[in-house]
Design goal:
- The protein is an alpha+beta fold and 113 residues long.
- It has a single domain, classed as 2-Layer Sandwich (Alpha-Beta Plaits), CATH 3.30.70.330.
- The chain has helices at 3-15, 25-28, 36-44, 58-69, and strands at 29-32, 47-52, 73-81, 84-85, 91-93, 96-103.
- The strands form 2 sheets. It has a 4-stranded antiparallel sheet with strand order 1-2-6-3.
- A hairpin with a 5-residue loop joins strand 4 and strand 5 (91-93).
- The protein starts with a helix and ends in a 10-residue tail after the last strand.
Length: 113
């Protein structure tokens, strides 16, 4: 198997949704992240941030957004937010996975707590 064929098989594997088959779309997207920074991103870039399940990948988040909000995302960016500790104190912030979803200019999501 050549290197090009190995990359093609890897690409096929990465396009498939992983967690959406195990969970409902309501379980993939846990909560919206509402901060000053995300509010600014909503106004300027039309992008929204969500806490997502730790097993979810970009395709799972894309399918869940399409199912829940009836909009099609242009792109999805994923990041893992690490745990935040303080010395001689307890936990400050738990670790979670974050997805930033960018929509088209005409699409909008009503996000409330």
């Amino acid at each position: 198997m050549t290197f090009k064929q190995i990359l093609q098989t890897r690409a096929k594997k990465s396009v498939q949704a992983k967690a959406i088959h195990k969970f409902w779309p309501y379980d993939v997207i846990l909560a919206p992240i509402l901060t000053e920074k995300t509010h600014k991103q909503q106004a300027t870039e039309n992008s929204y941030a969500f806490k997502v399940h730790s097993d979810a990948n970009k395709n799972d988040v894309r399918q869940a957004i399409e199912f829940l909000y009836k909009v099609t995302p242009l792109d999805v960016r994923m990041t893992s937010v690490v745990v935040k500790w303080r010395s001689q104190r307890k936990l400050v912030r738990k670790a979670y996975k974050k997805a930033i979803v960018r929509l088209g200019k005409k699409d909008k999501i009503e996000v409330w707590v």
